[in-house]
Design a protein that fits this description.
By secondary structure, the protein is α+β, with helices and mostly antiparallel strands. The protein has three domains: 2-116, Calcium-transporting ATPase, cytoplasmic transduction domain A; 124-193; 228-279, no CATH class. The protein has ten helices and nine strands. The strands form two sheets. Strands 2-1-3-9-4-7 form a six-stranded antiparallel sheet, with no helix packed on it. A three-stranded antiparallel sheet has the order 6-5-8, with no helix packed on it. Strand 1 and strand 2 form a beta hairpin.
Length: 279
Amino acid sequence: YAVGKSRKDIAALMDIRPEVATVLRDGQETEVDPSEIALGETIVVKPGDKIALDGTVNKGMSQIDTSAITGESVPRKATVGDKVISGCLNLDGVLYITVESSYEDSTVSKILDLVENVSAVKSPAENFITRFSKYYTPIVFFLAIALGVIPPMFIGISDLAVWTTWLRRAMMFLFVSCPCALVISVPLSFFGGIAAASKRGILVKGSSYLEMLSKVDTFAFDKTGTLTKGNFVVDEVYPAEKRDRVLEVAAVAEQYSNHPIAVSICNVAKAAEGATVHE
């Protein structure tokens, strides 16, 4: 249950896989499952759609948002001949892309497979417990059998009360020595930590990386999109007495740009009562 819940939390956080893709066949646009598209076919990605498969742009020009894959908040320009990867969001133009990888080998599928199967990367503590339980469990099991069978054979093989007493002692020994708590507690604590981190927007690739945090003394962060949201807001305009005029001029200069700073200037200019933006 813990493993499944952790995988679901991480998969929900990495909701970057397109459910459908538009493929160009016989001059007609058809929506199909991305896994049904063959290499060499052309997919059509319209504004607001996610790129379903890796490939090369053969027609069109647009700005693409790669933040879900690379963490970079500034859109990237894509034109004919440029390589594009799956999971990115097409912003403002129609792109015709020649598919160069299957759905299983696409960038987005590899990322999701990596983060969903975090249990494959085990920490040293987990590896030790796995090796330990491999020998400890059968030893405890056979000792419990020996405790329940051997003493009655010498003390009173025909006495039912003796057999009952020693079988009860064997069960108590098995219950006390059972490695379940030891074997389950270690991986369960790691899975719980990974799931808790995923709910807070932090992806941990495996328990070994989670354990490494106890030895870390320095952190380096990519600021935009990690420590910040990448959404810029105009706080103040100088000089304040010419606020509307400054916004108007700045917005005219920035209105054809998709850069986050340009978008924030245009938004505040449109909201200002005294500023007029001519498109």
